[in-house]
Structure formats: C-alpha cells, structure tokens
Write a structure and sequence with these properties.
Blueprint: H1 5-17, H2 20-27, H3 31-42, E1 50-53, E2 56-59, H4 61-87, E3 92-100, H5 107-117, E4 120-128, H6 130-138, E5 144-147, E6 156-171, H7 182-188, E7 191-194, H8 199-210, E8 218-221, H9 224-232, E9 238-241, H10 246-250, E10 254-256, E11 264-273, H11 280-300
Parallel strand pairs: 3-4, 3-5, 7-8
Antiparallel strand pairs: 1-2, 5-11, 6-9, 6-10, 6-11
Helix pairs in contact: 1-2, 1-3, 1-4, 2-3, 5-11
C-alpha cells in the first residue's frame, strides 16, 4: 500500500461528513478533487470503504475501522509537527474548544490575539448546542467549553469572561397596541423558541414559568441566526441574547421590548474538568485569558453596557 497523508485526510473527512460535497467544502477542495483522492485511496483496498444507496453515501463497517485508524495516524503526524516546533522553542499543539451556539459571537475575540501570538497552535472550535457541549466535557473530548449556564453535575474549574444579557425582542415594523400588558404579549402573540437542550430555550422557559406566562402559539428553530431572522420578518417574539443582535438593533430591524424582570443576566464562563491535565497549549491560553480578558472586553464589548 502506498497511501498518502492527504488521502487519509480526505477519506477521514468524507467518513465524518458522509458526503463528498461537504468534505470538499471543509477541505477547501473541489468535489472532483475529493472524488479522485477517494478513488485512489479505495483502490488500495480489496474491500469497499464506502457505498452509495440511492443518492446517499454510507461508510461500510470496514471503512469505519479504516477511518478510525486514519484519525490516529493523522493525530500522530500532527504530534510530530508540534514536537518539532516545541524543540525550536515555539508553543505548539492543538486547542480544542466546544462553544454553545450564541458563544460564537464571543469566543473568537478571546482567541484572536492568542492565535496571532502562537503560530504553532491549531484551533478546533465546535459550535453546537448546550447538550452537545456538556457531552463533550463529560467525555473529555475538549480542553475547554464556553457556556452561560454551568452544568452542576460536573466538577469544573472556570474563568468568568463577561455578562450575557437576554431581552424580549420584536421587529420594528409591527407596533404593539399601547398599554398592552406584558402577560398578553406572551399569551396572544407567537413566541419563537430555540430547540430543546439550548441554554437560550431553558432561560426563556424558566422566565415564563416563573411569571406564570403561557403562549398561544410556539415556533421552534434550531439556531439563533434563524431565530433572529424569524423575529425580523415578523413571525413572532422571542427572548434572545443581546450579543447576537447588535447590528440588527443598530439598523433598527429589531427592538428591545421593556418587560419586568428582563434582561436575564448570566455570565459567559470558560470551563474545564477539574481533574483534567491541561496541555502546555491549554495552560498558556488560560494564562493569556487571565492577563488579557479585561482588555479584550473593554476593546470589543463596551457597547454592551448601553443596554
């Protein structure tokens, strides 16, 4: 056999995405280039690695074993690169962070200068919902996680970064009747929710339950961006994190509706397992945060205090 690291990388990505198109997008390659590398890799094995049923690509059981081996080989190859850089006195390694979906508006600002300072560090940031973030912590798959609600069943250490504020949001085209009670807003107008397992969804449901609000009609969407667009289009109202709607407020596409006991205020926390042995890269990032977080907040999130 004479497969290359590039072929291993292509096959692993195809196996993970179960799609040549999606693999090509993530690898910044054309679909024909991925298909050629996949065929050249497959030709070295007497057993199929993938199969197409209907129009969908599936990885065979044998292919799954090869994908697992490919992941291990590529990890070892990365380790060689990191060790070479470390021998030259350069901080090197992989930093893996799981981020709740709204955290994508926060975490990059705390990473940018660190990544600029340490060219030998590779970043893997998974943006997903709260349930998946907690799972990645439980299974020790990541160095850190960014959450606004700390899971209480895990023993974690943390660094508090900044406030997270959630307001009742509506669009600016539909005016609510004057003197309408806040309870009626929730009862008589459609409310737009995030999916089950989302921290934003949990915060919204907790607030409504505490105030004995019920809703006539519920719409559920699976991302904050989709939720924001739905509110902008006038589909309904929602309780949303301020961090993701700055431009929409500035452009007067959305408005904050004053309601008793809002905003809900939590804090963004970078957390990690207390029992985890942090890598030199992870330890360096923590030290960077402790020294620079106040400056980063002041430079990038000063506008937050206007609301």
């Amino acid at each position: 056999m004479n497969y290359t690291l590039h072929q291993l990388q292509v096959f692993l990505k195809v196996a993970q995405k179960q799609s040549i198109t999606k693999a090509a997008e993530e690898l910044f390659l054309t679909q024909p280039a991925v298909s050629i590398q996949l065929k050249n890799f497959q030709d070295q094995f007497p057993i199929p690695l993938t199969e197409v049923v209907g129009r969908k690509l599936y990885v065979t059981e044998f292919g799954k074993e090869i994908a697992e081996a490919a992941e291990n080989i590529l990890a070892e190859a990365d380790a060689i690169n990191y060790k070479t850089l470390a021998f030259k006195g350069v901080l090197a390694g992989r930093l893996k962070i799981s981020v709740v979906s709204t955290g994508k508006y926060v975490m990059p600002y705390f990473l940018s200068d660190f990544m600029e300072l340490h060219k030998g560090v590779d970043l893997v940031m998974d943006v997903t919902n709260k349930s998946r973030v907690v799972q990645s912590l439980e299974q020790n798959e990541v160095d850190f996680a960014l959450v606004s609600v700390i899971p209480d069943h895990l023993k974690l250490d943390r660094v508090e970064l900044m406030k997270n504020k959630l307001f009742l949001i509506g669009n600016t085209k539909k005016e609510l009747p004057k003197n309408i009670s806040k309870k009626k807003i929730f009862q008589e107008y459609p409310m737009i929710y995030r999916e089950e397992g989302s921290a934003t969804r949990n915060a919204m449901e907790t607030y409504m339950k505490r105030n004995n609000y019920s809703t006539r009609k519920k719409i559920e969407l699976t991302s904050n961006e989709a939720l924001k667009q739905a509110v902008t289009a006038g589909l309904g109202y929602s309780i949303m994190p301020l961090i993701g709607i700055k431009n929409s407020l500035k452009n007067k596409e959305l408005q904050i509706i004053p309601v008793k006991d809002l905003p809900i205020v939590t804090h963004w926390n970078l957390v990690w397992l207390s029992s985890k042995n942090l890598t030199p890269t992870a330890s360096a990032f923590l030290e960077f945060l402790q020294n620079k977080k106040d400056q980063i907040i002041k430079e990038n999130f000063n506008w937050f205090e206007e609301y």
